[in-house]
Amino acid sequence: MSEAIFDYEQPDSFKFLTNQYGPVFRTNIVGENLIVSTDPEIKYNIFQQENKSFILLYTESFMKIFGEGSLPMNHGDVHKYFKNLILRLVGPENLKAKIFPGIEEATRKHLDSWASFGNIDVKEGTSKMIFEYFAKLLIHYDEEKAPKGKLRDNFQAFMDGVISFPLNIPGTAYHACLQGRKNAYKVIKDAFEKRKASKTPYNDFLDHLLKEVECEDTFSDEQNAINLIFVLLFASHETTSAASTFAIKFISDHPDVLEELAV
Fold it and tell me: According to the model, what pLDDT value does residue 147 have?
């Protein structure tokens, strides 16, 4: 297919197009010809045919931001390999034994600190909590002890420009996005090199990646390992913080649910 499949939950700006052309139509976004689907059943069928009738593709600007060798750009056996690596981190056993208890502990800690504030921006507070937890889980990174130019600040600049017009000029969101990625990548690379030299185990995901890189029969090398950590930080932070924020909102909108959870 010469066009990409663009999976997009219908915003107000698309209502005119869907009313005129139906739930599937062609358009152009950030210089890319796309097929937009707002039909849940069609999107479900597409995902069921991934790596069969369809392959996962991204816009050119998105590929430049993440890098053509990064995890989202891989297909076939390479994609399956990295998917299995990720499942070792977030698979059912590790979720139950390590991640859920860790998230609960981090949540209690941040809720205690929020109690001293008159008002709290839930999205910002949740985002900070999730990022700090996963940064420590992945590379044992402590945001509070980090020097200026913290990892989360660079990721925020990156995320603010992921979906932006690809104009790489100082002052634009796209330029800030690329700079944020460059700085965040350096922090991760420095952590990788430091851990590799010290051989000190921290029982985190980076320890596991170092062992994978040392294996002879593997798709993973240092570049792929660093890219994988970058993508996991992005994915865990962006999706989990948003979901947690909506959960808090929906619970606060339904006092009966809150009362039942408090029992």
Answer: 66
Residue 261: strand, helix, or coil: helix
> Tokens standing for 98?
């390590």
Q: 152, 141 in Cβ contact below 8 A?
A: no
Give the three-state DSSP class for 147. Answer: coil
Which residue from 228, 237, 180, 239 is spatially nearest to 206, judged by alpha carbons?
228
Closest CA to 5 of 36, 27, 32: 36
**Alpha-carbon span 64 to 32, nearest angstrom:** 14
CB-CB neighbours of 249 under 10 Å: 12
Place of tokens 């430091």: 194
The structure tokens 């408090």 sit at 262
pLDDT in tens, 118-157: 788 888 888 888 899 999 999 999 887 876 558 888 888 8
Query: Residues 34, 27: contact at Cβ < 8 Å?
Result: yes
Asked if 29 contacts 17 with a C-beta cutoff of 8 angstroms, the reply is: no
Q: CA-based Rg of the chain, rounded to a whole angstrom? A: 20
Q: Which residues pair with 24 in a beta bridge?
A: 37
Q: Is the pLDDT of residue 12 over 70?
A: no
For residue 73, pLDDT over 80 is answered with no
What per-residue confidence (pLDDT) applies to 3? 39
8-state DSSP, 68: T
Tell me which residue of 155, 130, 143 sits closest to 230, measured CA to CA. Answer: 155
* Confidence band for 190, pLDDT divided at 50, 70 and 90: very high
